[in-house]
Structures are given as C-alpha cells and as structure tokens.
Amino acid sequence: MEQPTTLAQLRQSEYRVLPVKQEMRKNLIRKIKAGEELFPGIIGFEGSVIPQIENAILSGQDIVFLGERGQAKSRLIRSLASLLDAEVPVIICRACRDRVAAQGDRVTVRWITPDERYSEKLATPDTSIADLIGEVDPIRVAEGKYLADELTIHYGLVPRTNRGIFAINELPDLAERIQVGLLNLIEERDVQIRGFKLRLPIDVYVVASANPEDYTNRGRIITPLKDRFGAQIRTHYPRSVEDEIRIVEQERTEFQDHELSVVMPDFMKEIVAEVTQLARRNPKINQRSGVSVRISITNYENLASNASRRALRTGETEAVPRITDLPSMIPSSAGKLEMETWEEGDDQTVLEKIIKTAVLNVFRRHFEISQFNELVQRFDGGLTFEVSEGQPADRYAAILRELPGMDKALKSLGLEKRPALAASGVEFVLEGLHLSKRINKTELDGAAIYAG
Q1: How many domains does the chain have?
Q2: CATH number of the domain enclosing 26
Q3: What is the largest CA-CA distance in the chain?
C-alpha cells in the first residue's frame, strides 16, 4: 500500500498515532505471539534478563540496566529499537508547524525508520543541559531573531528524539545537577528551556545503563531519578561455558585467507571460555570491576593468530591452536583484569595458574585418567617427547604410533588424523596427564619435554 505523502492523504488514511510505549508494547506482543527472537545476538539472558525486559515493556516502564562492563548492556539498549514500527510520519518542529498553518493539508510528510527514532548519549562529566534539552542559539540571535522567539532555540537530543527511544549510557557519570534536569522528562514527559515559558510534551521511552559500583565510586544516580525509572534490571556474565563459547564465535573477528585456514578444536574453545569463567571467581582479581566477555574474544583471536604465525613459518596450510599457544593469551588478558594486589608480575602469575587450572578442568571433562595407564607406563619406561610453539605438526604425527591410546583419545575429541589437528590433540592429552601428576614436564626456553 502506497504511503501518504501529504498531510491531507495522511488524514484520509486514518493513520493512528500511538504513544511510543504503547507502540513498543504492541510490537512486543506481536513478536511473542509469532514466536520471533526478540533480541538476536543476545546470548545467555533467555531465562533471566529478557523476561524482565518483556515485563517492563508490557508495563510501559522506563528501564535502567545495571551490570559490570562487557555484559551487553549497550547492545540490549540498542536492540530495543527493533520494537518500534518500521516507519512513522513526522511533522514536529516549530518551523514545520508554521508551514502547516500556512499551507494546510498540502504540507508533505516524511516517514522515518527506527534508526532515526533512536538517540544515544554517553554520559560524561561535561555533558550539559544544552546537550540533552536545548539552549538559546546565539548564532540565530545574531542573525536577527528575537530572544523571545522560539525559533532561537537549538533543541538537544531529547526533544529531537520525540516519539522514539532515548538512551543514556553510564548514567552515574552525569553530574547530579544535570540528572535533576531529567526528572521532568521521565515523570511528567515534558522539558523546559531556560528563559522561556515553554513546555514541550515529549513522547519518549527512556532507558539507561550503569555499573552497580558507580553508585558509590565515580558518581551515583540521584535517588529521585532512580525512583522515576519503572524497572531496574541486573545483567550478568554468561553462566555456562557453552554460552561463553557461543558469544565468542559470534563476536570474534574473522579474516578470510585463501592460502591458510584456521581450525579451532572444540576443547581449545572450552579452555578459552573456562579461563574467563575461572577469572570471574578468582579472589586475586578485582571482581567489582568485572571480567568482561571481551577477554574470551581477544584470547580466542590471539590463539588463532599465534597458530597462524606458526603455520606461515612452517609452510603448513592449516593453523590449529594447541597448548603451547596458550601463553599468547596473557597479553590479551592482562590489560582487561584488575588485580587486588599491586606486586610486579603478579598478574602474569595469576593468569598462568588460571590457564593451567582451565586446561585440567577441560581435560577431566573429556577423559578418565585410567584410560591412559598404558601411555603413562610407556613414559615411565623411558619415553620422552618434546613440544614447542614452533614445532611442525608432522613431528607429532610421526610419534602417534608410539603413544598407546592416543588414536582413541583423538577420535573421542572429534579430531581427524590431519597433522595439525593431531598435534593439538596430542599436546592436550600430554598436558592433561602432567597436570594430573601422572607424567613430568620440564620447561625449557620456548619448549618443554614430557617424561616419566
């Protein structure tokens, strides 16, 4: 059906203007009935956060999301725009109203999309009321307009988001005197411009994000403003290794190389996720600042890059991360973790212990120690095997026949007998046996030797 292009056609079409909250509620109900995915790309919140969001929207409540860094608060906020109508007609400014008065129903209307109806502001200490609400524009005054003229006002983000969603990130960073300016917006749904007896009825859905610690650290959300938000929803980190892996695979940067393919074994993905999960429970890491999912993502990317670097040097066409690549995760983790202690080098020591624990935990999920009794006996009988970050995969394939039970172990990991995949599996089993205190490991410069 062709859209109306003038005010007359719009009136004839009997188009009905719905308040934003009612519009979002209508579209949410439609999506729930149709069984549509409400927030694509949001993983791990299905039974916790998303039901609370649905309740808030069905109740017509503004939302403040509380959660540590890297908990998808901004993505959740931006995804709310999907609950707006595909297009709505607009004539909102004073100049537009003047044209309506002069031209009547001949005035043309424009249809805007949800993207144009969403505004976002990162709260910073220097944010002003002019940024959010508006201020007299001295340029317009200099051009000859009177101060009493409404057209001298340059409107801020909130009025320009009329009939849309206005989001403010890191709300506690906003100066308290500026937060006071938002009180009328959320409760009475209007704004006032300094020096003018002007009240703008604003139809806007307000949503904000904050770190719980910010209530007492960098700043706080003033009590009257907190009271005006209808719903306060706590976000959280992925609660399972599986959800962590799904997020990493969704968000990681992937490059397409025609001459080199990167294959990440499932057990290496588990180790990456397990490292982050353990970091979130480690008492030596400051849990108040949070352990973001971004650590898992950058660790995954660094492992893939380290394996690619090795493959490029050895001339292999397949890069498969393995245990000797795990130290490459330390640089991608260290900058994102805040330690409780300040001793030099303590962060690396803590990370090394976490990585070893993660490897052992994943190993125990896949294997029973008893299934490697024969292999352990071979090492006790004098077998040794050297591994290193730069060692070609063919070296591992050549020794497979000397490692009893290894073929069965690789098969249980879902690894084919391709050299690079076999090398990754061999290192995993040997490291797991070492961490289980069944074989010894001697660390050398850039290499290690497993022995009985």
Answers
A1: 2
A2: 3.40.50.300
A3: 99
Contact present, 190 and 167 (Cβ < 8 Å): no
Domain extent for 275: 241-451
Does residue 112 lie within any of the structural domains?
Answer: yes
Predicted confidence band at 376 (pLDDT cuts at 50, 70, 90)?
A: very high
Asked if 230 and 59 touch (Cβ cutoff 8 Å), the reply is: yes
Q: Which of 234, 267, 282 is the last residue of a domain?
A: 234
Which uninterrupted H or E stretch holds 270? helix 266-279
d(CA 227, CA 221): 10
Environment class of 432 (CB within 10 Å of its CB; exposed 0-12, middle 13-18, buried 19+): buried
pLDDT for 396 equals: 86
Q: What is the Cα–Cα distance from 176 to 15, expressed in whole angstroms?
A: 41
Query: Closest Cα to residue 50, out of 60, 58, 41, 42?
Result: 42
Rounded to an integer, the average pLDDT of 241-251 is 93
Tokens of 44: 């791990």
Q: How far is residue 429's CA from residue 450's CA, in Å, rounded to a whole number?
A: 11
3-state SS class at 244: helix
How far is C-alpha 82 from the geometric centre of its chain's CA atoms?
18
User: Which positions ≥6 away from 80 have C-beta within 8 Å?
Assistant: 24, 57, 118, 165, 167, 205, 207
Q: Is 291 inside any structural domain? A: yes
Residues 264 and 397 in one domain: yes
Q: Residue 400 is encoded by which pair of tokens?
A: 């497979």
pLDDT, tens digit, for every residue of 183-202? Answer: 877 877 777 666 666 677 78
Tell me the one-letter amino acid at 119.
S
The reported pTM is 0.81
The dihedrals phi and psi of 54, each to the nearest 5 degrees, come to -60, -45
Neighbour order of strands in the sheet with 164-169: 118-122, 164-169, 204-210, 63-66, 231-234
With beta carbons less than 8 A apart as the criterion, state whether 44 and 72 touch: no
> With b meaning 16 or more CB within 10 Å and e meaning fewer, what string describes 390-409?
ebbbebbbeebeebebbeeb
Write out 321-352 in H/E/C secondary structure: CCHHHHHHHHHHHHCCCCECCCCCCHHHHHHH
pLDDT (tens digit per residue) in 269-301: 999 999 999 999 998 888 887 888 999 999 999
